[in-house]
Design a protein that fits this description.
Blueprint (H helix, E strand, L loop, with lengths): L13 E9 L3 E6 L4 E6 L20 E10 L4 E5 L5 H28 L3 H12 L6 H9 L12 H14 L5 E10 L5 H13 L4 E6 L2 E8 L2 H19 L4 E5 L1
Parallel strand pairs: 3-5
Antiparallel strand pairs: 1-2, 1-4, 2-3, 4-5, 6-8, 6-9, 7-8
Helix pairs in contact: 1-2, 1-3, 1-4, 5-6
Length: 253
């Protein structure tokens, strides 16, 4: 990663780290985003007794850690591996992958122009670092037309090419909303009525999954939750209209 944050991380911060050295009771890492060393005591590797620390970490492996303590005067950063939840780990890895995708765009543009990626990245990052935690977030705002590429102060040729590649490789942010429903019918052709109604909402971009026991999961992606909720509400109303009182629809929490 090209990002190098200034200063020291804060306690509780979730960080992406590379294992650089393993001792019997200690693991040393490089905190990628800060380019600083950190330490993980064996007690913070995993719950319970650890017979061999190398069963949990290996040299050169990238891991997600949580900051426990920071001592800038001594330059010490104590980290924990075991205190990172699975959700935090997945989220951090996803963020890193997205950032790497953004940095690949910088590398591509720099290569086209015969420049060093660090030089172009530095110019861009200097302009946005006070507002954004990751470069990827700014690129996503460009795609969603919340920000302008001209804000970066690059020459027209670079700005134009950068915007082209961003729009080609970065997708607008989406959220997914879901609703479980139960549909039953006592009509002779009830199964066909329900089937046709569900096919109808699938044509509008909804994903319908059968869960068993007359229960279904309806999913929809949109740009934001309010829009997704509005579309879901509208579609449920349409579904009720399609079955025309020949089936009973129950929303399940």
């Amino acid at each position: 990663m090209l990002i190098r944050r200034e200063g020291y991380p804060e306690e509780g911060e979730i960080l992406y780290c590379k294992v650089t050295k393993i001792n019997p009771h200690t693991v040393f890492v490089n905190i990628v985003e800060y380019d600083r060393g950190g330490l993980i005591n064996i007690s913070e590797i995993s719950p319970g007794r650890i017979r061999n620390i190398r069963d949990y970490v290996s040299l050169g492996r990238y891991i997600v850690c949580k900051v426990l303590r920071v001592n800038p005067e001594k330059g010490h950063i104590d980290l924990s591996l075991r205190r990172v939840t699975e959700q935090q780990r997945r989220q951090k890895i996803q963020e890193v992958k997205q950032e790497q995708r953004a940095e690949k765009i910088i590398e591509f543009i720099a290569k086209e122009q015969g420049k060093e990626p660090e030089e172009l990245f530095g110019k861009i990052w200097e302009k946005i670092k006070d507002e954004y935690y990751y470069l990827y977030e700014f690129f996503q705002d460009i795609v969603e037309e919340k920000r302008s590429i001209e804000e970066l102060g690059l020459d027209k040729k670079t700005s134009k090419r950068l915007k082209e590649i961003i729009e080609e490789r970065i997708k607008p942010k989406e959220v997914e909303i879901h609703q479980k429903i139960k549909i039953t019918s006592t009509e002779p052709d009830g199964i066909e009525i329900i089937k046709n109604a569900l096919i109808g909402i699938e044509k509008h971009g909804f994903i319908v999954t059968y869960l068993g026991g007359s229960k279904y999961l309806i999913r929809k992606k949109a740009k934001d939750y309010k829009e997704a909720e509005r579309q879901m509400k509208t579609e449920i109303e349409k579904l009720e209209s399609l079955v025309n009182k020949k089936a009973n629809i129950e929303l399940i929490k």
